[in-house]
Write a sequence for this structure.
């Protein structure tokens, strides 16, 4: 995991002083080579030992090692997640440059997301979905797009899945819920009160909750039995949602492939379903 990703992912669990250091590093990653630990401490009006302890808490020997790791991230283009296209680029080449920058940013978000979710976690969640009696999938706002598509993918993989468009309708069916049922909740920030309450009720009825959120600390992630995390960062407010959706879709697609790789049972079912769908579309 890159140094900058470590800092972003652990920031919410840091102390107030550590967050000040983290924010400075994230905001000034390209300038850190000019700062010694003492200069950084003076700039933030904290002790030099706080900078050293911050570096060691992230797994580095000291500030020089952390600074070097951040410098490598910046050299790879991980500094702030943005890749601006030069305004002087020729009109014909500007579109290609813009497309390339967007592709690189999406790829970086997908790679960071993969690094946050271990193979063991993905396999465990795939096993949970595979053994479920019914999988309920819900997401609100932009998350509803991914939730609806994922529910369809689950059905294609031979999993009984139900897409929920309104959390208010979910409690109606809880009386029929089984212990083997699973609720998958997609919520970027994990703070929607309706979804958190739904997850709490579902768990109280002995169901299993899987959350898919950003990698920040949030209520939904806390109450979930299993959690998948998405990483996507960009200084531009109109670009960051694009990166989040790309990384989220990549994660859901990976989970779908793991379900399809379950021996010889699901692939024939998936192939037959795909063939029937093709016939319907072509007729």
């Amino acid at each position: 995991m890159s140094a900058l990703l470590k800092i972003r992912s652990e920031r919410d669990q840091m102390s107030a002083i550590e967050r000040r250091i983290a924010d400075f590093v994230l905001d000034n990653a390209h300038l850190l080579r000019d700062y010694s630990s003492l200069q950084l401490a003076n700039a933030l009006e904290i002790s030099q030992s706080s900078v050293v302890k911050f570096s060691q808490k992230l797994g580095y020997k000291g500030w020089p090692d952390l600074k070097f790791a951040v410098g490598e991230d910046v050299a790879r283009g991980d500094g702030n997640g943005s890749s601006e296209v030069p305004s002087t680029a020729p009109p014909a080449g500007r579109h290609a440059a813009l497309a390339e920058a967007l592709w690189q940013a999406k790829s970086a978000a997908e790679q960071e997301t993969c690094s946050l979710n271990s193979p063991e976690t993905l396999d465990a969640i795939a096993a949970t979905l595979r053994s479920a009696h019914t999988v309920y999938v819900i997401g609100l706002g932009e998350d509803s797009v991914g939730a609806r598509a994922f529910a369809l993918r689950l059905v294609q993989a031979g999993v009984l899945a139900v897409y929920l468009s309104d959390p208010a309708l979910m409690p109606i069916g809880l009386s029929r819920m089984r212990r083997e049922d699973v609720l998958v909740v997609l919520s970027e920030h994990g703070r929607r009160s309706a979804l958190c309450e739904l997850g709490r009720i579902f768990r109280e009825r002995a169901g299993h909750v899987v959350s898919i959120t950003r990698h920040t600390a949030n209520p939904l992630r806390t109450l979930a039995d299993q959690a998948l995390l998405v990483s996507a960062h960009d200084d531009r407010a109109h670009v960051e949602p694009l990166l989040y959706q790309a990384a989220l879709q990549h994660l859901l697609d990976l989970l779908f492939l793991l379900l399809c790789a379950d021996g010889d049972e699901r692939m024939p079912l998936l192939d037959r379903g795909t063939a029937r769908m093709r016939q319907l579309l072509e007729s």
